[in-house]
Write a structure and sequence with these properties.
About 60% of the residues lie in helices and about 10% in strands. It has 16 helices and 7 strands. Strands 1, 2, 3, 4, 5, 6 and 7 form a 7-stranded antiparallel beta sheet that branches. The chain starts with a helix and ends with a helix.
Length: about 500
């Protein structure tokens, strides 16, 4: 490898690592703020939090790596252009593609590695992250009572204490509102003092209260306006409240199919085949009974079956409206009423079956989108580099000012286009091939155009170049403007100058 190639690689690797970790940190802060309520107040171990953040960082690689590639390319080539190193290379006879040759080889290796990351590491990290978040959400909060504040960390219970002794953990002025009864009964307990603590596995709540009253509001299930209020006093009361966790439902097929991000490409293909079978089965179980049992219930000709061959030419067309005219008014009303009820029942059964079919179709669209997403990431990385490197060579500005502005603009355009295409593909309006590859199709001509301009040393972002072009355009347009308009314009300028004086 030549020294000049080492210089270019060294100028690029530093900004790449720095921008990648900065982007990952910004995205990580967004993740932390989103799940801050689930992470605080539950006594989680440090290893659990670190594992969750590591899985979240792996999940953010498909979003952070293209942005880091774009920003670092603009910074690296901008620094080389600002310090006239790029100009010296071109003066030595090196073209821009030859200068970018080592960077293109490196970016190609990174894009190939990103495919294995998004296909193998990201699904595993997503599955592990979902499991950790599920366990965290089902884990009960630690009992941390604050003076005069209600503690609502337990389901269907609210506890207020006046003061808690830091050494003995003795609670004073205790109020407990218990609404765990399914019939709607509420129990209110007031005590002078007591102790409340959780079991080691946080599945039971142990309560010991002294000198208090219990008020139980009992609803009458037969007469809602007649309720009963029970009251009794106690000196020492002990109780155990079960606080069981909600078990995960392993057999929920729709929930399993909605987690397309936890599967690699081969697993997505198997999942897609299973969804197609379910969709065909759902359609067969919906349309066939609908026609046979509701719409054409008494039509033996249509429902005869494929095995029975019937000569339809022997039958004459039947007009139902002609037969209705021969019926009496009462029979006429009965026919319409029965037809209306049959149509209503058919519509209800079809709506239910249609909903289940839509659920499977939605999951199928998600699977297709995720399959194409794993292929678009490597192409997007190369595409962003081919946009950033020519831009840096054109603007010749290093640092973080101009590169960040241009990177954010291009990334916002990419994000808007990708979100638009993914939404259309998710709703089934477009095929996933068009929706997921739409950003690549839009930005590829931009990358080609910028590479062409940078190779030919174009002044694409030079304000003087645009000023000269605008002046030439004005001169050409002025030839076609009538003289009286020019005179009127000249007089208006004179009047403005006189008014200013």
């Amino acid at each position: 490898m030549k020294k000049i190639h080492k210089l270019v690689l060294k100028a690029y690797l530093g900004p790449l690592l720095a921008t990648f970790f900065i982007v990952e940190f910004v995205l990580m802060m967004n993740f932390v703020w989103r799940y801050i309520d689930d992470l605080t107040g539950k006594g989680l171990e440090v290893s659990t939090i670190v594992e969750l953040l590591a899985c979240a960082m792996a999940n953010m690689v498909p979003l952070g790596l293209p942005l880091a590639m774009l920003l670092s390319a603009i910074m690296a080539m901008g620094n080389l252009g600002e310090h006239f190193e790029l100009l010296a290379m071109k003066s030595a006879g090196m073209s821009l593609p030859r200068i970018l040759a080592p960077l293109i080889a490196f970016v190609t290796l990174v894009s190939v590695g990103s495919f294995f990351v998004v296909n193998n590491l990201v699904p595993f990290a997503n599955q592990r992250m979902y499991d950790i978040l599920f366990d965290i959400r089902e884990q009960r909060q630690d009992l941390e009572f604050k003076d005069g504040m209600f503690f609502n960390g337990l389901p269907d219970m609210s506890i207020r204490v006046g003061h808690q002794d830091e050494k003995t953990k003795l609670l004073t002025d205790v109020i407990i509102f218990d609404t765990r009864d399914e019939s709607g009964n509420m129990t209110t307990t007031l005590a002078d003092s007591g102790y409340i603590h959780m079991a080691p596995d946080k599945s039971y709540l142990y309560v010991t209260l002294y000198n208090g009253d219990t008020y139980e509001h009992v609803r009458n299930t037969r007469w809602y306006d007649q309720n009963t209020l029970r009251h009794h006093e106690f000196v020492n009361q002990k109780g155990t409240f079960p606080v069981a966790k909600v078990a995960r439902r392993e057999g929920d097929l729709s929930k399993e199919f909605s987690e397309a991000q936890t599967r690699n490409m081969s697993e997505l293909e198997d999942l897609r085949d299973s969804l197609l079978v379910l969709i065909e089965r759902s359609n067969a179980g919906s349309y066939s009974p609908l026609f046979k049992q509701q719409v054409f219930r008494y039509d033996t000709l249509l429902m005869a079956g494929d095995s029975i061959k019937i000569d339809r030419s022997e039958y004459k067309p039947f007009n139902i409206y002609d037969s209705l005219t021969t019926l009496s008014m009462r029979d006429h009303a009965k026919v319409y009423s029965r037809a209306n009820n049959t149509a209503r029942i058919a519509r209800g059964s079809y709506t239910y079956d249609e909903h289940s079919s839509k659920v499977y179709l939605t999951q199928l669209y998600r699977v297709d989108n995720e399959w194409h997403r794993k292929l678009t990431l490597p192409i997007t990385i190369i595409l962003f580099f081919m946009i950033g490197a020519p831009l840096g060579a054109i603007i010749r500005k290093g640092g973080l000012g101009m590169p960040i502005v241009i990177s954010v603009v291009f990334f916002v355009i990419y994000y808007v286009i990708s979100t638009f295409g993914e939404k259309l593909a998710k709703e089934g309006v477009w095929d996933s091939l068009y929706g997921m590859w739409l950003p690549v199709a839009v930005l590829t001509p931009v990358a080609i155009y910028l590479t062409y301009k940078a190779t030919n040393d174009s002044s694409l972002l030079d304000t003087d170049w645009y000023d000269v072009r605008i002046r030439k355009l004005r001169r050409r347009i002025s030839k076609y403007i009538p003289e009286w308009m020019k005179i009127g314009k000249h007089k208006r300028r004179k009047r403005k100058n006189k008014n200013r004086i």
